[in-house]
Design goal:
Helix 5 packs parallel to helix 6. The chain has 417 residues and is of the alpha/beta class. It has 14 helices and 24 strands. It has a four-stranded mixed beta sheet with strand order 22-23-1-24. Strands 2-15-17-16 form a four-stranded mixed beta sheet. A four-stranded mixed beta sheet has the order 4-5-3-14. Strand 22, helix 12 and strand 23 form a beta-alpha-beta unit. Helix content is 32%, strand content 26%. The mean pLDDT is 96. The structure holds uridine-diphosphate-2(N-acetylglucosaminyl) butyric acid.
Amino acid sequence: MDKLLITGGRPLEGEVRVSGAKNAALPIMCTALLTEDPLKLTNVPALMDLRTMAKLLAQMGVEVGTQSDCGIELRARAVTNPEAPYELVKTMRASVLVLGPLLARCGQARVSLPGGCAIGARPVDQHIKGLQAMGATISIEHGFMNARAERLRGARIAMEVVTVTGTEQLMMAAALAEGTTVLENAAREPEVVDLARCLRMMGAKIEGAGSDLIRIEGVGSLAGAEHRVMPDRIETGTFLAAAAAAGGRIRLTGAAPDTLAATLGKLREAGARIQTGDSTIEIEMAGRPAAVSVTTAPYPGFATDMQAQFMALAAIADGAAQITETIFENRFMHALELQRLGADIAIHGNTAVVTGVERLQGAKVMATDLRASASLVIAGLVAQGRTLIDRIYHLDRGYDALERKLGALGARIERVH
Ligand code: EPU
């Protein structure tokens, strides 16, 4: 099994290009189920999760082709098998996003329940309640959601929690429903906005994406479209946090600085000098970062997907920082691994108090989930000596060529078998 070997202590210098966003590409690929026409996507990152989604769609009868410029073409002339098996859903929760589109297109779906996950319980009750409000009958049998609907009907749905994929699920289903759907307390994440942009290109009538009230007027059919996936704001933030921790000066291109306000604000608070252009971000960090506290919240708050990376930054910061996680109940697994590298972290419920130390020391550590892996990479870059990170398949799910990009910035990092 692959591992990452990092020799720490070098500042980062140079330029890298940000990839397309995993969490935008995943729901957008599912929109292929809503039309018989081809959906052409560009800026699709080369990631395991997207290969899993392509496999899932192919199993349903979707033709999947790859093109140049990180392109992919999906065409669902017919959906022959409206089912998402446990084997795929258990490896990637976002597989549940096919439920709404399948119901809208085929009037039926059989999708495995995702179950638990390393970062918390992660139920899908809001997805189910929303689709039921639109007229679907959903029963849970043998671990599967069995869903049926003659034709989905528009409804006013007040979501009880802010859920990103829940909002995306209902938006896709509502696009082909009869009548108007209003989603209250909708997620405002940029990935929701990107999905709405793609759906509109396909002919959907959607207003308000990016606010907490989204209005979708259902249409009879959708057509194919060409869409460029938005830049990955979490990959961007991860590189910025790495530069803030390791020091140096890097420039990111192909980015979307306007989707990163909370992260950029916190990095500036840590002492980084940051300049943004339309699609570029430059960060310069000299000396030890100041300790900054963060509390995760739905967008436009500080992203839970950046929490682990900021814990690594806090580990070597000057002073003590409080890191509070409000989205997932079990997203501190990286704290124990960071402690193996010499970090001083005390956990009290959903808050971690991190007292910065001057130096971390390289050690063998284990990745537990995607963003936890990223925090260990950042810690490895600043630790004295060698850090060996095991279970990096988590990293491959969500970071496109991370070690190659960090290597281009001067980091001593290699994949070993
Ligand atoms: N929740 C419910 N019921 C539901 C849905 C969610 O109670 O029906 C709760 C969850 O348990 C959680 C909170 O609502 O406590 C927010 O979860 P959300 O549904 O927003 O998470 P998600 O849509 O499953 C997406 C990203 C995650 C990211 C979260 C939060 C994708 C494919 N995944 O997950 O990304 O952490 O939003 O921003 O978009 C990652 O990329 O590493 C990752 C985990």
